[in-house]
Please model this.
Amino acid sequence: MTTTNTYEVIILFDGYSKETENATEANCTCTLINGPKKIIVDTMTAWDGPKLTKSLQDRKIDCDDIDYVICTHGHSDHIGCNYLFPKAIHIVGYCISHEHVYTNHDFNREYIIDESVKVISTPGHTLQDVSVIVQTDKGVIAIVGDLFENECDLKDDSIWKKAGSDSEVLQIQNRNKILQLADWIVPGHGSMFKVNKNV
Model:
């Protein structure tokens, strides 16, 4: 598919999740979509503001330059630095807002940002999960939050199930949909990986 809007997907921080003796240590993958629109997907925890701001500044981007903040779902390790972007439209799961104004959108249909970027409903981990689909020069990149924890959960489904799923049935359906749709996947707690279409 040829598009006129060229976007680059930049992983600002790879997410992780590991069990300790008494708790889980985790942070989400934080992604910049850079092009005609500037979009941050999943803003990590509330303690990550300085490093997120610096990462953007290193790329000559100010927080006020961000057009959209998209959080794949509303868990605290994915929404913590939303406050850094007061000029952006915020999409958190199915909720769309700017300042004190909330916009209704029926996520039974896609939320179109432009011809190269859209937000789709992918419930499972939570019932209001969304994924961001980006057409790029390297193929279709799907930024999916905790629909996929990391690449290892392709072979070991206990990884994503242990992370929590409001509907395992929906999560399996939407995982399969993304695997068919995407060339690359940015998971919630790991590095971007290439989809093997031969499996």
In short: The mean pLDDT is 95. Helices lie at 49-58, 76-79, 158-162, 168-181. The chain has one domain: 8-194.
